[in-house]
Amino acid sequence: MSLLQSLYRTPVLLTPEWGHERIFSPQSYEIIRKICTVPVALHEASTLARNFALCWQKDSDRVRLVALVSLLPEALAFPAYQDLPLILQAYPVVVRPNEAGEPLSIWVDKTIPDKPTDIGAPILMDNHKLSSGAELRIRAALHLRDTFWQADDLTDDLLAHGILETWPLKFDLGYGQKLERDDLLVVASDQRDNPALYSIVQRHGLRAGLFMGLHRASLFRVNWLLMQARNHLRTQDEKARREEQSQSRELFR
Length: 253
What we know:
- The chain has a five-stranded antiparallel sheet with strand order 3-5-4-11-8. A two-stranded antiparallel ribbon has the order 1-6. The chain has a two-stranded antiparallel sheet with strand order 2-7.
- The chain contains seven helices and eleven strands.
- It has helices at 30-33, 45-48, 86-90, 132-160, 195-204, 206-218, 222-251, and strands at 11-13, 22-23, 37-39, 53-58, 63-68, 107-109, 121-122, 164-166, 169-174, 177-181, 184-187.
- By secondary structure, the chain is an alpha+beta fold.
- The longest helix is centred in the last third of the chain and has 30 residues, at 222-251.
- β9 (169-174) and β10 (177-181) form a beta hairpin.
- The radius of gyration is 20 Å and the shape is flat.
- α4 (132-160) runs antiparallel to α5 (195-204).
């Protein structure tokens, strides 16, 4: 299963019969709270680099440009909605690959928000028009659908010229947990002055140039992600201790 497919549990075609369902904020859904990496487009770089590490991930079908948004499931500290990757802003609207000749259709992940943060909004209103929340998500999904190819083309060019290298992550998170990942890639430090890299940027245009400038700086956000992961584990440990103490008090009553 590809990274894109793993974001969705039960994608269904949006029809008037299903449109009465409500949609909620991204963090209302367990599948989003457990996410660690998400596919991104080049034009998102200037927004995402402030909060996340921009890198590449070895996916089941290809190497894909991604944002590393968390080191552990449930440890994602959600920034403002507009600062999230577009694929998370769009959820539960499904981002589907742009297949040649395939008619445009809107799909929604039919999943239940286990921790809703608000009352949500309908997908379709009583007059069968899209609600503003649904329209916002659909626009994000369609925009990604039409721009993913730019990131894929840049990625293929970088790989063909040997510009990328593995970015191994090894951290002791405390509380008996360690993190080890070897499926991520970054621009190799010894390739930053490679003339081929400059030629690649020229071929792919301004957005590629901006992205390459932000990519290396964004990797330092892993320190912030590490702090979030450790804070998450500490919170979980404190919660477990409180529950244990509460159970002990009940036993001795």
